[in-house]
Amino acid sequence: MSDLVPADTTEDVRTRGAGVSRQVAVLPVGSFEQHGPYLPLATDTLVACAVAREIAGAYPVHLLPPVTISCSHEHAAWPGTVSISSVTLHAVVRDIAASLRRSGVDALVVVNGHGGNYVLGNVVQESSARGERMALFPAPEDWEAARERAGVVASLLTDMHAGEIETSILLHAHPEMLRPGYETSDFVADDRRHLLTLGMSGYTDSGVIGRPSLGSAEKGKELLGSLTDSFGAYFSLLTSDE
Q1: Pairwise CA distance, residues 74 & 202, whole Å
Q2: 3-state DSSP call for residue 139?
Q3: Is residue 46 a contact partner of residue 85, using CB atoms and an 8 Å limit?
Q4: Computed from CA positions of residues 235, 220, 161, 159, in that sequence, does the dihedral angle turn out positive or negative?
Q5: What's the pLDDT tens digit per position in 23-55?
Q6: Which of 23, 32, 62, 159 is geometrically suited to a Cys-Cys bond with 163, CB 3.0 to 4.6 A?
Q7: CA dist 203 to 69, 154, 164, 195, 197, Å?
Q8: Ramachandran region of residue 104, left (φ > 0), alpha (ψ -120 to 50) or beta?
Q9: What is the pLDDT of residue 19?
Q10: How far is CA 198 from CA 75, 146, 225, in A?
């Protein structure tokens, strides 16, 4: 678990910054919420950190420690889930971005590991309108490209929570964190039009919506590889002088 916290010193950051035209920081944002009986509460944080760590290995970015609790209100029916308000998450990310700019890092990429963090899109929109450099990653298109490259069978609609994608990434990046049961926990609920009103408990008893039985470490590796490649366009956009 030590790879969740970057080991950089201040000199590492200074040296890396001297070699680029514009510094880019990467902030993983996860959650602390139920992921069925076999994935840990920290799954979204582990996924966001795995993506961010791969990005930091391929691009000269300033990797930040994760935000580990976010907006998981739809999972409140399950023990262990903890949430903060969207207003608080909005303020936390804005404060981090402002602090980075004061220290000379004027571009921030938020790597979001939890689909319920809708407010992060608003943070990026508002920051961009103020002329600040910020991006939200991965976009749905990046996930779709990764799904196709990795041979993920379930669609992004079906693979909503604790399914094939999350199970695969953890099987690759943190296999020690999985418990038995994902092989027999598939549950599909594609029509979730009342999710915001009913929460997850209106659609699943187990907390799972997806097909985790299809997960594999090989798919997890390919998913991360594809997302790392997709990040290149974001890095170019944020470091451009145009």
Answers
A1: 10
A2: coil
A3: no
A4: positive
A5: 999 999 999 999 999 999 999 999 999 999 999
A6: 159
A7: 23, 18, 18, 8, 11
A8: left
A9: 82
A10: 10, 30, 35
pTM over 0.90: yes
Residue 1 reports pLDDT greater than 70: no
What stretches of 80-216 show up as alpha helix (H) in DSSP?
86-102, 119-129, 140-150, 164-173, 195-198
- How many residues in the chain? 242
Integer Cα distance of 124 and 120 in angstroms: 6
Q: Which two tokens stand for residue 196?
A: 């915001």
DSSP for 89-110, written as a single string: HHHHHHHHHHHHHHTT--EEEE
Tokens standing for 134?
A: 């910020």
What digits encode the pLDDT tens for the residues 68-92?
999 999 999 999 999 999 999 999 9
Q: H helices of the chain, where?
A: 10-18, 43-58, 86-102, 119-129, 140-150, 164-173, 195-198, 217-239
The residue among 68, 132, 147, 63 whose CA lies nearest residue 95 is 132
14 Cβ partners below 8 Å, 6+ apart? none
Q: Which amino acid is it at 88?
A: T
Backbone angles phi, psi at 157, to 5 degrees: -65, -50
